[in-house]
Amino acid sequence: MQIKTFTFNPFMENTYVLFDETKKAVVIDPGCHNKQERAEIFDFIQSRDLKPVKLLNTHCHIDHVLGNAFIQNTYDIPLWYHREEDAILKAVPAYAGNYGFPHFQESSADHFISDGDLIKFGNQVLKAIWVPGHSPGHLVFYHEASKICIGGDTLFQGSIGRTDLPGGDAETLLRAIKERLFSLPNEVVVFPGHGPETTIGVERITNPFVGKNARF
């Protein structure tokens, strides 16, 4: 499996395209919101002759869903996310203008993902792991074969997701990271929703919020 990272919108959100030798692909958390950003991801997919087959959201805060409608409509593919994120996504149009996105295009789920579900594309399998706290239905997508985890806004290099947004809860997130993400092998590379990659092993020891010597 191969992975392509894009960084989009003023929130510097990471969008991911995962694909393999079959040319089948999934798009995760499309944050593309203007013509230039949409062209960037479209041109990459076209240049590799990829066929997107699924659109996945780790969670549905505005910065991660700005390109949902564009990807859905361009490739005629289904949108998948956790049921508890439905209200989060439906709330976005009410505040999008306040964040500088007055032309936000709405989208809605075609399928809901549950904890432990296996999401297949090409010859690949992603496991959905529920890691709530940043948002109520936050999922991460784990590719066991390559030891890669698409982590959304759960675990960052030296930090964790914020918990002061509606539906967030600090205690829930700290517990979920320790019990769910830290159950993965140390060598797993976490591709987060913002910033650079890290590994489970490094964060297990050094993260100031959830690491071995955490201050909290």
UniProtKB/TrEMBL annotation:
Pfam families, alphabetized: Lactamase_B (PF00753)
Nuclease recorded as keyword: no
SUPFAM superfamilies referenced in this protein's UniProt entry, alphabetically: Metallo-hydrolase/oxidoreductase (SSF56281)
Cofactors, names only: Zn(2+)
Keyword Metal-binding attributed: yes
SMART domains per UniProt: Lactamase_B (SM00849)
Transmembrane segments: none
Entry keywords, A to Z: Hydrolase, Metal-binding, Zinc
GO molecular function list: hydrolase activity; metal ion binding
Start and end residues of each Metallo-beta-lactamase domain: 12-194
InterPro entries named among the record's database cross-references: MBL_Glyoxalase_II, Metallo-B-lactamas, RibonucZ/Hydroxyglut_hydro
Entry-linked CDD domains: metallo-hydrolase-like_MBL-fold
Domain of life: Bacteria
Protein name from the UniProt record: Metallo-beta-lactamase family protein
Originating organism: Lunatimonas lonarensis
